[in-house]
């Protein structure tokens, strides 16, 4: 620093110039350094209400408020399945009438005093063969449409609830055909679809065993298995050429018809209820 009057250098400690005696203005105060801007401390997130645990599903509300998954339409296939079941039931009733007529005709043959109309016998044989063919055709058609329905209903159920189903999708087809397992696999498939589609099943469900199985499923499957067993007995009796075997086969088949109608009605109610469940869940998801 120098003197402002004579230009002589001044020592930092002196208050006057040694040359001219002029008082020094002093060292200007050093400005205080500007403090560096302090970033605000990061705000830690609030503790989660639901603890994060490996394998635990997110809260129900969080899942249900998520964007809804596009559902495959099921109404058309449901109507088709029920309509085909109705056709099968109508043919089954017609076949029951034919069997009742056959019982009467065979009884007349055993009665030596009763006259038997050969034309009536031929007509009964023709109607019996025709109703048998129609019943088989409607059964196959119903089975094909039902399998397509199962695939679509299963896809919707898997989109709504993450719980794994007991059987893979391949069994939706071969489960009806493979011996032994065909006695319970189709029912298990239908049970899983029902339980995953039911509105009371939460979207966070990861185990379908925790939900209830439908009573309709038991009614449908028990009636269907009993009808199949009686149909197998009838098929063996029809291989015999004796009139007594034909008469017994007609009696068993006529009595098996109401059981088949119970199975068809229960299945129709099952597919209709599942369709309603899935539509109800979709509407609920859209309203969240």
TrEMBL record:
<keyword id="KW-0812">Transmembrane</keyword>
<feature type="domain" description="DUF4328">
    <location>
        <begin position="113"/>
        <end position="274"/>
    </location>
</feature>
<feature type="transmembrane region" description="Helical">
    <location>
        <begin position="218"/>
        <end position="234"/>
    </location>
</feature>
<feature type="region of interest" description="Disordered">
    <location>
        <begin position="18"/>
        <end position="38"/>
    </location>
</feature>
<protein>
    <recommendedName>
        <fullName>DUF4328 domain-containing protein</fullName>
    </recommendedName>
</protein>
<feature type="transmembrane region" description="Helical">
    <location>
        <begin position="133"/>
        <end position="155"/>
    </location>
</feature>
<feature type="transmembrane region" description="Helical">
    <location>
        <begin position="246"/>
        <end position="272"/>
    </location>
</feature>
<feature type="compositionally biased region" description="Pro residues">
    <location>
        <begin position="28"/>
        <end position="38"/>
    </location>
</feature>
<keyword id="KW-0472">Membrane</keyword>
<feature type="transmembrane region" description="Helical">
    <location>
        <begin position="77"/>
        <end position="98"/>
    </location>
</feature>
<keyword id="KW-1133">Transmembrane helix</keyword>
<dbReference type="InterPro" id="IPR025565">
    <property type="entry name" value="DUF4328"/>
</dbReference>
<dbReference type="Pfam" id="PF14219">
    <property type="entry name" value="DUF4328"/>
</dbReference>
<feature type="transmembrane region" description="Helical">
    <location>
        <begin position="167"/>
        <end position="185"/>
    </location>
</feature>
